[in-house]
Amino acid sequence: MNPTKKAQVLEKLEKLKQEYRAHLPGELDAIRSETQCLGESPSQTKLTSLHRRLHKLAGSAGSFGLSELSARARALELILQDWMDGKPPAYAERQALAEDLNKLGASSLVTPKVHARGSGHTAVHPGKHRNLVYLIEDDASVARELRLALDNFGYQVRHFPRLDLAEEAILAKRPDFLIVDIMFAEENRQGPESIARLQALHEDPLSVVFVSSRNDFDAHLAAVRAGAVGYFVKPLDIPEVIDCLESHLNLYQAAPYRVLIVDDDALLAERYKLVLEGAGMLVEAVTDPRLVLEAMNDFHPEVVLLDLNLPGCRGYELAQLIRLNPDWLRVAIAYLSSEQDEMQQVQAIRHGGEDFLTKPISDLRLVSAVSVRAARSRQLSDAIDRDSLTGLLKHARIKEQVNIELERAARQGKPVSVAMIDLDHFKDVNDTYGHAVGDRVIRALSQLMRQRLRKTDSIGRYGGEEFVAILPDCDQQSACELLNAIRESFAALNFSVGDKVFSVTLSAGVATSSGAWKTNMLEAADQALYRAKDSGRNRVDAADNSAG
Ligand SMILES: Nc1nc2c(ncn2[C@@H]2O[C@H](COP(=O)(O)OP(=O)(O)OP(=O)(O)O)[C@@H](O)[C@H]2O)c(=O)[nH]1
For a designed S-S bond to 419, which of 271, 326, 403, 469 qualifies (C-beta 3.0 to 4.6 A apart)? Predict the structure, then answer.
């Protein structure tokens, strides 16, 4: 998160804390007055109401930095629980309970302890687009080739012949990747130690990729110690280098996690929301459990955090309700509650939901617990929808997406183009270099398309070496221009196997709908593709537009 955003979040959290503090005396008054009304043999309704208030106080006070008040409220809550379970306290204990309840508002409890170090807010997920590469390479021809390939993949590249010439630029504008032709000689100023020194100047380590002609254990170890994220031996297989960059970008540029919080304590829900948003997540909070289904439908969360004690229902009942819908099986459900009774926790997990987080929870723990669960949920979702070699949508999903985009385009009165793309003579690549090398070619094309297409476009692996791209709001001419640019970039990419270097071309067919499409778009794109193949391959053909 950038410093301005972080400052805004901190400011909002501080405001919430003030709000909580402002509303706390009223809540403590209510607790005191309910205590005074308990009488000799209080009804279950009175006990339940007071218990509920204490339970909430125990959860919220801790989250707003009042840990002592939280602990005291928790102790009282347990006595109340016993009472509700038919074990009333003895007379002396009741006197002490009343006194303790009266003391809840004491200033020592409602003044937070001052912590020496910062606010305790957690580290942040960067989540912004990163594609600036600084390339440190003294061999002009290697630099030129790498630069061209990276440029084709949409990276912005600055080339420096030596590391010391790049240092100023690195400090002025942090690159997303530093690709360094590393020199291992002791006296060299472009060795792993120089990289380690450079790393020490940055709070977050730079993503450094080492390029070298050495391929021994010591060289790899030195790279790891200098914080390298990749190590490539010359002569370079450039698509492999790009594969490494892409994997790292995918890790950091993934869409933000989506989290739904269900908690009837509006201030606390808002607090959790801010903390998770501060960590780069998208968060919705609902305080009324009756709105959960609507929120599930509209917001599509990947993680749901459920309070256990909600007005009108229990959190685990909501978990069961969510689990009734097979579309939401990928969603991770965790309870976030002040419930400390292990049996209750186990019971809740047995009824749905996978996990129990107890309030109060530190910001760091909340963010890490939610991130882990969101990542799992996404992995599961990806495993269902995405092809494992390329990370692109699978056959059925991309077909479904064509219909979704066609309907959307018809509704909005905008064009949509569908392209069918196929590698040329791919059987020869497999036969000559082996299946594993063929797989690298397939992955390189999928990465190139991902780089070149917009976020709103969809790409799928339709068959073995056949891909489909859906381009909303893109007319036929623009689609053909884009596909031609991808075709040229791909053809310019050199793959190497040992000392052999080869390149691969592709052909594509494009169909565009400018209104209600009457025939099958995929079929039309496929026919155009086969025309391109028939006409000699390495070209893009458009379907006859009059069909759409
Ligand atoms: N390495 C690899 N090869 C695959 C994969 N899926 C399909 N193939 C291969 O892709 C090749 C497709 O061959 P063909 O359909 O004859 O087409 P082609 O050789 O590309 O020729 P044209 O399409 O006519 O230019 C076959 O050899 C398949 O085995 C895969 O996942 N990995």
Answer: 469
Q: What is the pLDDT of residue 122?
A: 24
CATH number at residue 39: 1.20.120
- In contact, 303 and 258? CB cutoff 8 Å: yes
Please give the distance, rounded to the nearest whole angstrom, from the Cα atom of residue 463 to the centre of ligand 1.
Answer: 9
ipTM: 0.94
pLDDT, residue 186, reads 59
Pocket (CB within 6 angstroms of ligand 1): 389, 422-427, 430, 435, 438-439, 442, 464-465, 533, 537
Residue 355, pLDDT above cutoff 90? no
Residue 200, token pair as written in the block = 């020490």
- What is the whole-number distance in angstroms between the Cα of residue 466 and the centre of ligand 1? 8
Strand 228-233 to strand 208-212: parallel, antiparallel, or no bridges (unpaired)? parallel
Flag whether pLDDT at 103 surpasses 80: no
Kind and range of the H or E element at 109?
helix 107-110
Euclidean distance between CA atoms 232 and 245, whole angstroms: 12
Q: Do 355 and 404 fall into the same domain?
A: no
Are 292 and 325 within one domain? yes
Give me the phi and psi of 231, to 5 degrees please: -140, 120
- What are the pLDDT digits (tens) for 437-496? 999 899 899 988 988 888 789 999 998 899 999 999 999 999 999 999 999 999 998 888
Q: State whether the Cα torsion 529-532-538-539 is positive or negative.
A: negative
Q: Are residues 264 and 230 in the same domain?
A: no
457 lies in the same domain as 505:
yes
Report CA(465)–ligand 1 centroid distance (Å). 6
Q: State which of 421, 427, 446, 467 you would mutate to test the pocket of ligand 1, scoring each by most atoms of that ligand within 8 A of its C-beta.
A: 427
Judge if 378 and 515 occupy the same domain. Answer: no
Q: Give the structural domain span for 31.
A: 3-110
Q: Identify the CATH number of the domain in which residue 380 sits.
A: 3.40.50.2300
The residue whose CA has the least distance to atom 21 of ligand 1 is 425
* Residue 116 confidence class, pLDDT cut points 50, 70, 90: very low
Q: Return the H-helix or E-strand segment holding 314.
A: strand 313-314
Q: Give 375-442 as a 3 state SS string.
A: HHHHHHHHHHHECCCCCCECHHHHHHHHHHHHHHHHHHCCCEEEEEEEECCHHHHHHHHCHHHHHHHH
Nearest CA to ligand 1 atom 16: 427
Percent of the residues in the chain that have a pLDDT greater than 70, as a whole number: 90
CA of 254 to the centre of ligand 1 (A): 30
pTM of the predicted model as reported, rounded to 2 decimal places: 0.57
CATH number of the domain enclosing 440: 3.30.70.270
Q: How far is the CA of 528 from the centre of ligand 1 (A)?
A: 19
- CA gap 415, 403 in Å, rounded: 13
